[in-house]
Write a structure and sequence with these properties.
It is a single chain. This protein is α/β, with parallel strands linked by helices. It has seven helices and eleven strands. The protein has a nine-stranded mixed sheet with strand order 3-4-2-1-5-6-7-11-8, with helices on both faces. Strands 9-10 form a two-stranded antiparallel sheet. Helix 1 packs across helix 5 (about 135-150) and helix 2 (about 65-75) runs parallel beside helix 4 (about 105-115). The mean pLDDT is about 95.
Length: about 250
């Protein structure tokens, strides 16, 4: 199977290399990843300027754009006509849970693949600092890559979070993304030119802990597998509220 491997941590990320090592044992893997870290890039696509894709060797390319750019350009066959059967994004350093998926460049690469009609899988480990235990996540993806391919439908991508612990056998939980609450702190300095120099600090993140969520699974040392819809939607009760307030005048 032909696999496009990308990420948002950059072409030199150890998580990317760990995943490539496992997948390339049995599959044709092409690595096209950002030339530098693009964490938090979300689903940004470069529209009004060119991006540069640099060949490192026949199976490795760095891209000056975003994770979504890596997927978008590849699926338009700019890399030697290569078209993957599936796109895998990761292994990300740190989890991508619930609301994080909106901001995540890792998740965005998988989403972009699905938008363009190719199965997309995003995978992250729970740790932000060493040890990362990438091998557990890499083995899980390699062992299940055909399941992801065969069960995929065009309405979703797959977001996976793996506990970064030394255990080898994990229970797998099919989850929904949780709702996350970010406690943030900003400060600013007024520069001589009257511009604001603003610093940002994420103090902590809280979340709902319902037992069907990705956060619950990870906190209980289970692998979380979340199918995530592509299409934004609003619930009927919200639409009815607006309908009452925007009635057409006779």
């Amino acid at each position: 199977m032909k696999i496009l491997l990308t990420n948002d941590d950059g072409i030199e990320s150890p998580g990317l290399k760990a995943l490539e090592e496992k997948l390339s044992n049995f599959h044709d893997v092409m690595v096209i990843a950002p030339s530098e870290e693009r964490s938090g890039a979300s689903n940004a696509i470069t529209l009004h300027k060119n991006i540069k894709i640099k060949k490192i060797d026949k199976n490795h390319y760095s891209c000056s754009g975003t994770p979504a750019d890596c997927v978008h350009r590849t699926l338009h066959r700019v890399i030697d006509g290569f078209v993957p059967d599936i796109v895998v994004s990761g292994i990300n350093i740190g989890p991508n849970l619930g609301t994080d998926i909106i901001y995540s460049g890792t998740a965005a690469a998988a989403r972009q693949a699905a938008i363009m009609g190719v199965p997309g899988v995003a995978v992250s480990v729970s740790a932000f600092t060493e040890p990362f235990y990438f091998e557990n996540a890499a083995i899980f993806i390699a062992d299940n890559i055909m399941r992801f391919f065969e069960n995929w439908t065009s309405d979703h991508f797959i977001n996976i979070n793996v506990p970064s612990i030394s255990a080898k056998n994990f229970e797998i939980m099919i989850t929904r993304p949780s709702k996350r609450y970010y406690n943030e702190e900003l400060s600013h300095i007024l520069e001589p030119d009257e511009s604001l120099n603003v610093s940002f600090n994420l103090i902590n993140v809280l979340h709902d802990n319902k037992n069907d969520t990705d956060c619950y699974a990870l906190e209980n040392n289970m692998i979380s597998v979340s199918p995530v819809y592509l299409q934004p939607f609003s619930e009927e009760k919200i639409r009815l509220k607006y309908k009452k307030n925007f009635k057409r005048k006779k």
